[in-house]
Write a structure and sequence with these properties.
about 260 residues; alpha/beta; Rossmann fold; 9-stranded mixed β-sheet; two-stranded antiparallel sheet; 11 strands; globular
Length: about 260
């Protein structure tokens, strides 16, 4: 394998000006978790698998010793929401390891989905805050003023002069601009060091406003509650360590005195 390989699982798919949504693993797995929930809840159909020599040279060992390849996958949905939108969703368990690999794979995927007539791109990801916010905000960036205005109308705060968007979430937008395909990135606040279901839910709520569709988030809320409990446990462990350190310092002072 010397280049990107796209294995088509279902031919002759007819889609009407579909929206392309990218949600590969990233900070807090925020975008991936949101997109996986859409796929499961709305019954999206997988129609292509993507392999690349730029993916990590490994496999994942799952339950009962069964392995899983490093892979990206494309799903489609038809007639979503009140506007009967068609969607193509990119998910997977990895991104390319190198900058060159990122460019090559994203370019090949974009060329492939262009064949289905995509008219807009949304990329989903996380934005690290360093702490776990109680109510994660969703920030956005767009390729043009019209799409930036749509983000603002959906209650999404625009990032301004605030660094870059690294990886596939930024690259697909940049490549899209060069091919006159407009797009936007939605970024949920996250600490970035665990799977953040609460931030994923925040992104999903904003995406549903932008695309005018409804989706049940009960299962995601259950995962968010697990996340909150994990945060509370981590914070308690941190506080215990601080208390222990302070107690140790006090003991040292008494000994010296």
């Amino acid at each position: 394998m010397k280049t990107t390989e796209i294995t088509v699982l279902e031919d002759n798919i007819e889609l009407d000006n579909p929206i392309f949504i990218e949600a590969l693993p990233g900070l807090g797995h925020v975008g991936k978790l949101a997109a996986d929930h859409i796929i499961d809840e709305l019954g999206a159909v997988k129609f292509a698998e993507i392999y690349s020599p730029t993916f990590p040279p490994q496999v994942i060992v799952k339950d009962e010793g069964i392995i899983e390849n490093m892979i990206n996958e494309l799903y489609y949905l038809k007639d979503v929401g009140e506007e009967n939108l068609d969607l193509i969703i990119l998910v997977g368990n990895t991104q390319s390891l190198s900058p060159e690999g990122q460019y090559l794979v994203c370019k090949d995927i974009l060329e492939f989905v262009k064949g289905y007539g995509i008219g807009r791109i949304y990329t989903l990801g996380g934005m690290v805050t360093g702490q776990a916010p109680e109510n994660p905000k969703v920030f956005g960036a767009a390729t043009d003023e019209a799409n930036a205005e749509l983000l603002k109308e959906a209650g999404i705060e625009l990032r301004a002069n605030d660094g870059g968007i690294v990886g596939a979430s930024g690259l697909f937008l940049g490549l899209g601009v060069r091919q006159q395909i407009p797009g936007s990135c939605l970024m949920g606040e996250t600490p970035g060091y665990f799977i953040d279901a609460e931030s994923a839910e925040a992104i999903l709520n904003k995406l549903s406003v932008l695309l005018n569709f409804e989706i049940n988030v009960d299962k995601l809320e259950e995962r968010a509650e697990e996340t909150r409990q994990m945060i509370a446990k981590a914070q308690q462990m941190e506080q215990d360590l601080i208390n222990k350190a302070n107690a140790g310092n006090a003991d040292d002072l008494r000994y010296i005195g």
